[in-house]
Amino acid sequence: MGLTKQYLAYRVIDSFNIIASGRSNVNFAVVDKSEGRFVAAPAAENVIIWDLRMGDRKLTLRREKFEVTALRVSPDHLHIAVGYADGVVQIFDLSSRTYYDAICSLALHKNAVSILRYDAHGMRLVSGGLDTELVVVDVVEQAGRQRLSGHNAAITDAHFLQRLVDQDIVVSCSKDTQIKFWNLETQFCFKTIVDNRTEIWALAFINDLMIAGAGESGMNVYRLRKRESNGQTLETAVEGLAIDDEDTISPLSVSNCGTIQRAGKGRTVNMVADPNERVLSCHGTNDLIENFYICTAEEAKNRLAKRLKKARKKAESAAPDQDEEQLSKELSLSDEIKRLESIKTKQKIKSIDVLLGENKELRVLVSLANNSMCLYSLEASLRSRKSTEESSVKVLRSLTRLGHQSEVRSVCFSNDSLAIGSGAGDSFKFWDRDAMQCLRTVPTDYILCSRFVPGDRYVLLGMKSGTLLIVDVGAADIVEKIPAHEGELWSIALLPDQKGCVTGSGDTTVKIWSFELIDAGEGAASTKVLSLLHKNTLKLEETVLCVAVSPDMKYLAVGLLDATVKVFFLDTFKFYLSLYGHKLPVLCLDISYDSTLIATGSADRNIKIWGLNFGDCHRSIFAHDDSVMSLQFIPRTHMFFSCGKDGKVKQWDGDSFEKILTLPGHIGEAHCLSVSPNGRYLVSCGSDRTLRMYERTEETIVLKDVQEEEREQLENEQLATGEDSSVPLLPGLKLPSRKTVGSEQAAESIMECLEISKQFELDAEEKPEPHPLMLALQVKNPNDFLVATLVRIRSSDMEEALLLLPFSIVCDLLERLPALITQRPDELELLCRVTVFLFKVHMKPIAASKSMKPLLLKLLDLLKHDVQQLRDVMGYNLHALSLLQTEVEQREGVQLFREATQARKQNQKKRRQAVKRRIQIQMA
Questions:
Q1: Helix crossing, 741-762 with 807-823: angle to 10°?
Q2: Could you report the per-residue pLDDT of 378-400, keeping only the tens digit for each?
Q3: Three-state SS string across 160-217, please?
Q4: pTM, whole model, 2 decimals?
Q5: Could you report how far apart the first and last alpha carbons of the chain are, in Å?
């Protein structure tokens, strides 16, 4: 029996070129207690914390496969919540040394997460998804609390309303044109606003105002007031409620008090208020950011007085006998809201965030559609600006150099494997392979292909216009523009003797060029620069999409639009072979190092491997789920890499025709790849704006093991119990979590634990050896084993796992709970949660069973006693600590927790001011 062929594995090093992807929002972050300097930005499937002052990465929070669709930094700036395209929300701790490991991972939605928002204290998180549902998460418990269903379209924004009323309220808006107010205790919507005709895209809350950005240029403004209850109970309110009556159950009254007209056209995309609620910024689908200053009660009164004074003067001059009562003496929106200067950006805006600093300086962070970020500064004050006065808007920082402004179409390695070149629609960039930093940028037109010239001093660039550019790497300058072709220059291949190159174009020609050094020009006779001398032209009948020259200098292979590959003798251009078999155009091809194999990739999703001696097709492989865009042999082997429009990057063996491995590829399409001349590195580019770097490791892989792992991964993605998580006896039960493979495995582990415990108790007289699982968890008796099993289940999976248990297992578990509560008071919170959930779900069968009644009473007594004891301990500790705090403060004369106390006083002051302002408005 022969030895199994072994391969060396490639692994991902990192991705670069991306600054901010457009699908998610950006946020100011605080790292090392520095505010306004760091920014959290989505970068495909990662989140990068950028240092705007230094212009480089500070931290990277990673996850594989799924794109980031929403993120939010907590109010205390310690945590960041990140929502992904598969409905998962992960929370990271920015202050921890292991910041790159998520604290918790919550599966909340069926589709992408569209909005994340913390409450004022950062204890709860509301998440809205494209699946029309909202989920409220307890951040401390790391589990969902409520699931709110009622909208008919994707959720666009959601806020906790922690003002005016004492109840827990969430306000949400959706593409179904409705704004809903939800009571979290009852999990029901108590008020719906339906006076918008178009989708609502954003909400903002400032003092007692609610501003809704819709699909038109106006933003509706609503005033929220607390409704006086007049001692009426809920029952009497419901009894006296007719269909046409106003909703007397609602603790809030909402009245429309006007519209803010935006200067920008199209829908409102984003609306952001600064943390102190002094400034509101918004933008539409264009390149204009509009800023509004929200006046305090005193400022609004002064503006009203000024307006009335002006109006009186005007009225007196126009008609002295006019009655003054016609003038509006009430505060209007124009008195409370003042328009600040607008910011005009150079590109379409994707997301914004604002921060109001000292001296009324407003900082606006903008992520643009062209993979860049800018930080603007402007003055936010009531002072009126004169038309002659210059604008206060300044660009403080911009991140543009670290990435292409358009999609990368071509990548290539230098001949020494130390540098990478990438060509896009606007420029060509040189990157240092190890540091992944941009070294040079050359502005150009649309690049389709690129190649380093031997010696690595120059690069050849093939343009969409048919021009061939020669670029000097050191000077980052274009040396010469050669009008090589009349159509698109799709492909450049170097001649193996390193004395020239071959170009293939959309004008149906293939041209051979030779390198030569010429004088740089007048006054610089001593310096020589590279130029190309046209030697020969091969005219074909179809558009040329790719060309390759065999390493032995014998053959020229040309991939054509008619789905064939024609092979010619290089020296005479005499026809040699036609390789036909593809059904769609051949987009890429490469010849192996020994000139025996040629691999071709086509838009029909197949890769064909041919023998170059006779043109026989060795194998046709269904390689990708979409067009094969690029392929290249690894030097000195018959193995090659391919990438396709399905985003995947795959490695193949050209001798055995087997797939070796699939690398984690791009989100969207992959456009091009390049293997380094030493075969150690691979770089690929795609539509997600990332350049991804892979490195060969010393780890050997065996094909059967890799195939088995891939099969297991596919099986794990499919739930064994199906997607439906409804309970037969409880049709209305909507858990704030989603069934995952983790919850299924947790349910299996509980069942296995109970089975092992039963067996252990049956054999107790013989003093059996503990089960291997018990030894692994370092426990000696069944009760500790069960507690250890429950503790290991993730908090977010617990309820779904308990829901999957059959009723017979539930009964076994309940019977063991009294002993667990008695023996393990340290895990009382977990055991209490398990008990309450099981009773809530299985109440009917438990109530119907007479044998369960004594157990029920016993559990009730135990839990009451133990929970009361725990509350007493916590209360005692809390008051003891506050007493110690008072003693220290009196003795030292220093206020402990000064920052927290000041924040609390500030919140109380704000609340008092809001009440005072409402009274003034009512009096007016």
A1: 70
A2: 988 877 666 556 778 899 999 99
A3: EECCCCCCCEEEEEECCCCEEEEECCCCEEEEEECCCCCCEEEEEEECCEEEEEECCC
A4: 0.86
A5: 97
